[in-house]
Amino acid sequence: MDYTIRVATLEDCKDIYRMIMVSRCGDRRVAQGGTCSVCARRTHGHSELAKHEKVSDQVKIAQRDLEQDGFSKNPFFQSIIAEVPEQHRSKDGHSKVGYALYFFAYSSWKGRSVYMEDLYVMPEYRGKGIGKALMSKIAQLGLAAGCNQLNFAVLNWNKESMDFYLSQGCWDVTTGLDYHCMRCEGPALEALARGDPKN
Amino acid sequence: MDYTIRVATLEDCKDIYRMIMVSRCGDRRVAQGGTCSVCARRTHGHSELAKHEKVSDQVKIAQRDLEQDGFSKNPFFQSIIAEVPEQHRSKDGHSKVGYALYFFAYSSWKGRSVYMEDLYVMPEYRGKGIGKALMSKIAQLGLAAGCNQLNFAVLNWNKESMDFYLSQGCWDVTTGLDYHCMRCEGPALEALARGDPKN
After folding, report:
1. CA B71 to CA B9: how far, in whole Å?
2. Which terminus of chain B has fewer Cβ atoms in its 10 Å neighbourhood, N or C?
3. Structural contact between residues A135 and A119, judged by C-beta atoms closer than 8 angstroms
4. CA of A86, closest CA in chain B: separation in Å?
5. Nearest-CA residue of chain A relative to B183?
6. From CA B8, how far away is CA A67, in angstroms rounded?
7. In Å, what is the CA distance from B74 to each residue of A26, B20, B70?
């Protein structure tokens, strides 16, 4: 199947947002039994459905956030789109069938790197090389920008994606990490900004 | 002691690089017994010294990389400097006594965040609130840019820093992470870019 990989524009945000929302619930593969109010996929009964919708609730951003954050001056991320010709549109009429979202990061040990935040291909378009092509494009863009490292995360339950990434020459560095991941957010971050932590 | 926290400029790179190099070995606190060829700190005998210098070898960037990566168009990182007045210069004559290096990141779940790559204060200037002030400034800059999350890492051995961060309202999210950290770099990244992984 023909497809093109190209840099995303503001006009793609609606489709990127649609795929973000679907990927957050649909990919848990809860399948058959109920219907998620967000992605309209059917799930296994009430408890699975609740879990399913809970995942969708975790998406804090709206389409307008994507538009502002990725397509105004000094964007917070970059994105690319996989698009198929008219005759290969999805059952629901979509021609934008995959996307990847990335940003540049920096290490004072190792210099420039690229961080792949998302890589997604609609289920009916998988197995056609589109995910590989998106990832390869990010590698190209990263190398062109002087990065020699690509980093990303894979959710623990997602063995299918893990196998795919391993097949693409990536490796799991989790157990070799000699650091703790730390966070500050919400009211604690505001207190820190005031110079008044923990109050 | 008076000090100022300000946005770093190109002219600060020499001092930032000096502090990066010292922090990479000096902060391992190997103390007394030999002399590191990079930071001139004394260490515990030969084996500790070798370990010490090995850490310094891991710094792949040069001062000119910092200059290009942080101070040209579309910089890969931002940085801030802590500076003391003339009368409080260090024994070695330094008035730039601390720095922090950060960049903006993005999550398609949670939106904008700021990642603190480095936070460093020269040992003789610690305990004076300079580290807190640098970190508070990053929180301010992050909030002003619309971020509501600050992330960073602490090396496992660095209990002193961990205690400091916990005192600043940050928390350790390592054990709660439900994902694997993945990487692709060097020849594997080049192969991925060619669409020819593992070859």
Report:
1. 7
2. C
3. yes
4. 26
5. A151
6. 30
7. 36, 22, 8
Judged by CB atoms closer than 8 Å, whether chains meet at A154 and B182 is answered as yes
User: What are the distances in angstroms from CA A193 to CA B98, B134, B148?
Assistant: 18, 10, 11
Whether residue B73 lies within 8 A of chain A, CB to CB, comes out as: no
Nearest CA in chain A to B186: A148
CB contact under 8 A, A139 and B104: no
CA A83 to chain centre: 17
Q: What is the mean pLDDT of residues A6-14?
A: 97
**B 78-137: CB under 8 A from A:** 101, 103-112, 115, 117-118, 132-133, 135-136
Q: Which residues does chain A have within 8 Å of residue B186's beta carbon, measured at their own beta carbons?
A: 148
Picking from A152, A128, A45, the residue whose alpha carbon sits closest to that of residue B106 is: A152
Residue B33 in this model has a pLDDT that exceeds 50: no
- Is B102 annotated as catalytic? no
- Indicate the average pLDDT of chain B: 84
